[in-house]
Amino acid sequence: MTLKRTSLPRTAEAAALVELRDAIVRGDLEPGAPIRQSAAAEQLGLSVIPVREALKTLAGEGIVTYVPQRGYTVTELSADTVDGIFRVRELLEAEAEQCAAARLRDEDVAAMRAAVEEQRAAVDAADPLAVISGNRRFHFALLDRCDNEWLLRFVKQLWEALEPHRALSYRRAAATGDHERARAILDEHEGIVDAFEQGDVPLALRLLAAHRSGGQADFHRLLAPPEHG
Fold it and tell me: For 124, how many CA atoms within 13 A lie in the half-sphere containing its CB?
C-alpha cells in the first residue's frame, strides 16, 4: 500500500479519507487488498482514529468492506453487483446527462475534447492512471453541469464504487500491451463529442447510453474466471 503524507490544511479524518480514496482509485490498493489501519496511519503521519473513521466512510460508500475479525479490504465486486450498479447508473446517470446537456456550454464541450486527447496520449504512453484520469475528466466535464446536487452526488458514488476494478483493468491492459478496448473507448468518446459539437443532443445521449452498456460488458469480462486451454 502506498499512501502520501498530506500537507493540505484539512482535518485529520478528511486527509485520511482523501488519501485512502485516491490510493484505491489509482489502483495502488487493488480489489481484495487488506487495509491495515496502523500501517496506513503511519504512512500518513496520523493517528489510527482518523484512519478508522475514514474507512467507515468508505465502507458506507461501498468502496471498502469491513468483515469482523478480519478488518477492512478493498471491495471485490461480483458480476451481480456490477449489474446492480449499472442498473442504478442507467437510471440516475442518464437523468444527470440529460439535465447537464441542457446546460452544456461551448467551453464544456471543449473540455470534453481536451480530455479525449489527454486520454489518447495516456493510452499511447501506457499510463493507466492518466487514462483513468482522462476518462473521468471526459465524463464529468458533462456531468458536472447537472444542477441537481443530490443526483450528482449519487452518480459520483456509483463511479467510485467501480474505480478500483477500472484501475485493475487498465493496469492489466498496460502490462500486456493490449490497448484495443482502450482505443475503442476513445472512438466512442470522439463520437459523443462530435455529436455535442454538431448540436445533436439526442444522438449524444444515445451514444452515452451505448457507451455505458459497453462499460458494463467490460466489467463482466474483467470479472470472468480465466479460461484454461
Answer: 6
pTM for this model (two decimals): 0.80
Q: What is the pLDDT of residues 21-63, one digit of tens each?
A: 888 877 788 888 999 999 999 999 999 999 999 999 999 888 8
CA distances from 6 to 38, 58, 64 (A): 17, 18, 21
148 and 67 fall within a common domain: no
Q: In whole angstroms, what is the distance from residue 19 CA to residue 118 CA?
A: 24
Whether 123 maps to a domain, the answer reads yes
- Identify whether residues 196 and 114 lie together within a single domain: yes
Distance CA 41, CA 221 (A): 35
Q: What is the DSSP string of 61-84?
A: HTSEEEETTTEEEEPPPPHHHHHH
Question: Which residues span the domain enclosing 133?
Answer: 79-223
Residues 214 and 101 both lie in one domain: yes
Check whether residue 211 and residue 167 sit in a common domain. yes
> Would residue 31 be called left, alpha or beta, if left means φ above 0 and alpha means ψ between -120 and 50 degrees?
beta
- Candidates 93, 74, 104, 208; CA nearest to 153 is 93
Note the residue count of the chain.
Answer: 229
